[in-house]
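Could you help me review a protein record that somebody else here produced? Do not assume that whoever made the record got everything right. The record follows directly below this note.
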Amino acid sequence: MRTSRAGFTLVEILTVIAIIVILAAVLLPVFGRAKEQSNRTHCLSNLHQIATAIKLYKLDERGYPYDLQETVASPSPRPWIPGERWFGSGTDADGDGLVDTPDKQHPGYGLATLYPHYIENIRVFNCPNNETDVLKDSEMEDPPDPPITEAQAEALTRWSFQSYDGWDTALNQLKYDRYWRNEPGPSDPPDRHYIRQLRWRYPPEDTVLTWCTFHRAVIDPTDPQLENLRKTDRDLVVYLDGTTRVVPSWAEVAEQGSGHLSTPGEQE
């Protein structure tokens, strides 16, 4: 009499496991790329909204918002109000002396000057790749303000919720910066980048507004080393005309990479 087999042999089990491992090795990178592409699309949308809002602000105010360095300068055109955060006034829910709940009554600082009158949703200032995706990490921990100087950036242990403002340690530049280029001297050659600054009332449309660093392979707020930027790392840059581009985080020809020298080119 023939008896039915009660289970699988060891060879069959190992074969199934091997197939699962192979499929996982093939599919996981695909899923990772799909997620990154989705996050890039979301981030590009945020940057485009910021560009649109800043042009509306310019029409109303006849100038562009003060950057963070101008805000803390002395004397400052727009003084930093003690106890407030980068997103402006609000309530101190836990009594720690820091504003952690926006009330939308007064604008923020730097790029967040656009909030709430020109950009109503504060999440527009947050890249989906930014792990600090809430204004408050826990009951007793507030995310830091965007770093304004290199020293502040190197002292960070975690990122600010504000993804599009603050100091880029690798490129050694303030992302949203109205005064980033000095005037060329009488004996210096002409500098086309000098006019690509938001300090002017009518800068060219290819002037860089800001960029996002959260799509680099290694995101570490404590790492200031330019050498750690890989050739495959990419930043998302937005220009004054609303054009957004995915560009190398660093390039030997600065105009082809990220930062204020970046110029519009072919989309990657």
Q: What stands out?
A: The mean pLDDT is 85. Residues 16-256 form one domain.
